[in-house]
């Protein structure tokens, strides 16, 4: 997948493309359907599939201080989008200036002049342009003027609830990581670097890797969770920041499935390989302030089962599969240790059964 940052990075001679636009935080099941449809239509017409997204979250620019909790860090989001078969990801640095672009200006400058859209795929509730004045009807009218088609995909729901990033953030904030996983299509992941804690864990018999995640990462409610853990996770994300941009060169003459196969051979392109960072270990994870020790700082710490190594400074990813319980305050250590033993046994039971929840965590 080609990765562009800013409209200026789009190659001058870029031909026609099928484009979808969105923040796509979480790349949840609704996003997957829209992006999947974009890729399908691109293959049918033999042109590349382009995803346009924004960084930082537009809400932060329009209302400073209102950054929503982040479900997927930028590098992870790009990897997940690449995994859906997208040919190019264009990240627009969302600035106050950009936010002032009118709906018509956005369509003309971005979709027509830069990406040469032949077709634009969006969710039926899509809004765009200054003050979100543009909607699907306006997009269709502008499409007739400028010569691109518009397809609005119905929103994906589970039961009565439409899947949305906001809904998933609220599930995670409430600790319901099981329901979040159902809406995401995989467990919610926190990723970052292992930092030092109070050096108390190993004395209790349970050393815990303390995670420093991104500034706005969506941390589940205080409690204890069964999780899958990836150590040495490859995504080179700086906490709260952007990611490494790889420029790949490809022949652009044929973007059909056949063209891709002859370019790439079977399987994913090398740059996308391992993108999902396989979480192959089990972890019993504590989120909270360690009330037994009157801690103040809210921490995410993972006891990794069947593991013994120094991993300070390494990147890890934690995939939250199931909530086990709330945080408790103990008046002495033996009952805390007994409880952690029980948490570990439950984690093992939940995650080692064949075909268990979150097994294909990716
Ligand atoms: C599975 C698990 C469950 C935990 N549950 C609690 C708890 O209920 N109450 C509490 O005060 N601390 C709990 N802890 C956190 C320990 O207090 C913490 O890991 C310990 O203080 C080590 O901290 P350190 O990494 O800073 O050395 C739990 C830790 C783990 C791994
Ligand atoms: N099974 C394990 N799970 C998590 N961390 C482990 C494990 N085995 C060894 N470690 C190492 O021990 C460190 C945690 O030990 P701990 O006493 O809890 O110290 P700290 O308070 O600095 O987190 C981890 O950061 C990691 O480097």
UniProtKB/TrEMBL annotation:
What Gene Ontology molecular function terms does this protein carry? ATP binding; FMN adenylyltransferase activity; riboflavin kinase activity
Q: Which domain of life is it from?
A: Bacteria
Q: Which family does it belong to?
A: Belongs to the ribF family.
What reaction does this enzyme carry out catalytically? riboflavin + ATP = FMN + ADP + H(+); FMN + ATP + H(+) = FAD + diphosphate
EC number(s) stated in the UniProt entry for this protein:
2.7.1.26, 2.7.7.2
The record ties this protein, via Gene3D superfamilies, to: HUPs, Riboflavin kinase-like
Pathway it acts in?
Cofactor biosynthesis; FAD biosynthesis; FAD from FMN: step 1/1; Cofactor biosynthesis; FMN biosynthesis; FMN from riboflavin (ATP route): step 1/1
Q: Where is the composition biased (Basic and acidic residues)?
A: 246-264
Q: Where is the composition biased (Low complexity)?
A: 270-280
Q: What is this protein called?
A: Riboflavin biosynthesis protein
Database matches in SMART domains: Flavokinase
Q: Cite the entry's keywords alphabetically.
A: ATP-binding, FAD, Flavoprotein, FMN, Kinase, Multifunctional enzyme, Nucleotide-binding, Nucleotidyltransferase, Transferase
- Which NCBIfam families does the UniProt record give? PRK05627.1-3
